[in-house]
Amino acid sequence: MVRAVYPGSFDPLHNGHVDVIRRAARLFDHLTVTVAYNPLKDNGLFTVDERVAIVRETVAGMANVEVATFQGLLVEFMRSAKANVIVKGLRAISDFEYELQMAHLNRQMNPAVETLFVMTATRWSYVSSTRVREIAKLGADVAKLVPPATLRRVRARFDGGSTPAG
Ligand code: PNS
After folding, report:
1. How many CB atoms lie within 10 A of CB 40?
2. Percent of the chain residues topping a pLDDT of 70
3. How far apart, in whole angstroms, are the C-alpha atoms of residue 24 and residue 41?
4. Which of 49, 74, 105, 161 could form a disulfide with 141 if both were Cys (CB 3.0 to 4.6 A apart)?
5. Separation of 8 CA from ligand 1 center, angstroms?
6. Mean pLDDT across 82-99
7. Ligand 1 close to Cβ of residue 106 (< 6 A)
8. Under a CB-based contact definition with an 8 Å cutoff, are residues 7 and 77 in contact?
9. Is the distance from CB of 42 to CB of 82 less than 8 angstroms?
10. Which residues are within 8 A (CB) of 6 and not within 5 positions of it... i.e. 6 or more apart?
11. Catalytic annotation, pick one of 14, 17, 133, 153
12. pLDDT tens, 114-131?
């Protein structure tokens, strides 16, 4: 049984993330999507609990996917999740250096842990949580970029938005 973990801030979960979750859930027997609590990021949109609720709602129909949170080192979480595969999405070469550094460091801290990259679907390769937050804060609609669970909360937070994005 191969157990994998897909970690991230997911602030908020967008369609690129959902694509990676769906594909990873087909590749591994069990997938834990884990939402990082990052005290250094104080300009977030949603609390960890809200982000978890969004992911839970989105993966509700996926039998082998569970949702968790973690604080501290990812390799420590990997031990508690009894998993040795980290799944990350790669959108473009611009993601690569950041991801490569983390993959090397995580493997140095725990050589049993492998990081495997899933290339984000072309149609979502331009979507990032940072841009979704920005567009939503500036009052445009992000309906084409995020799953329904995110959209509902974004609309509740910003009272919608009339300019369609994308
Ligand atoms: O969605 P993000 O912000 O790219 O996710 C980054 C995340 C949370 C996966 C990464 O920052 C992380 O693993 N943080 C936990 C702290 C840790 O283990 N740091 C050492 C990584 S080399």
Report:
1. 4
2. 93
3. 27
4. 161
5. 7
6. 95
7. yes
8. yes
9. no
10. 20, 21, 24, 31, 32, 33, 34, 86, 87, 88
11. 17
12. 999 999 999 999 999 999
Query: Encoding tokens for residue 107?
Result: 């493997």
Beta bridge partners of 93: none
pLDDT digits (tens, 9 = 90+) for 9-36: 999 999 999 999 999 999 999 999 999 9
**Ligand 1 atom showing the smallest separation from residue 88 Cα:** 9
AA identity, residue 33: V
Q: Which two tokens stand for residue 166?
A: 């994308």
Structural domain 3-158, CATH architecture: 3-Layer(aba) Sandwich (3.40)
Please indicate whether residue 33, judged by its CB atom, sits closer than 6 Å to ligand 1: no
Q: Is 1 exposed, middle or buried (0-12, 13-18, 19+ CB in 10 A)?
A: exposed
